[in-house]
């Protein structure tokens, strides 16, 4: 079964515009804000950020998870990575 979802911003349909090259994409990442230490987490996050930097022109952490998800929905962010 294929689901078809549509997203709107200010009552205007948001259209996906494919980008042919990763160097024109914005990639973001997030790490969990856990108070307890998770063994090996920093290494996993470091590897994923390095991988993003090797592939994409711009890599950032935009802060709050909800803001990043809203920016993805609006087409302002192309890639979002979270390592747990």
Any key phrases for this structure?
single chain; 84 residues; alpha/beta; three-stranded parallel beta sheet; two-stranded antiparallel ribbon; flat
**Low confidence ranges:** none
Outline type? flat
Terminal-residue CA separation? 30 Å
What is the number of strand segments?
5
Average pLDDT confidence is: 78
Care to describe what's here?
The chain has 84 residues and is of the alpha/beta class. It has a domain at 48-84. It contains two helices and five strands. It has helices at residues 41-55, 65-73; strands spanning 8-9, 12-13, 26-30, 58-60, 79-82. The strands form two sheets. Strands 4-3-5 form a three-stranded parallel beta sheet, sandwiched between helices. Strands 1-2 form a two-stranded antiparallel sheet. Strand 3 (26-30), helix 1 and strand 4 (58-60) form a beta-alpha-beta unit. The longest helix has 15 residues, at 41-55. The chain is flat and about 45 Å long.
Write the layout of secondary structure elements.
Elements: E1 8-9, E2 12-13, E3 26-30, H1 41-55, E4 58-60, H2 65-73, E5 79-82
Parallel strand pairs: 3-4, 3-5
Antiparallel strand pairs: 1-2
């Amino acid at each position: 079964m294929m689901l078809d979802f549509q997203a709107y911003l200010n009552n205007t349909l948001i259209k996906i515009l494919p980008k042919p090259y990763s160097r024109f994409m914005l990639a973001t990442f997030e790490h969990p804000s856990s108070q307890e230490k998770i063994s090996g987490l920093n290494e996993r996050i470091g590897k994923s950020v390095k991988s993003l930097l090797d592939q994409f022109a711009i890599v950032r952490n935009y802060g709050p998870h909800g803001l990043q998800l809203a920016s993805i929905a609006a087409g302002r962010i192309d890639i979002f990575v979270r390592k747990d």
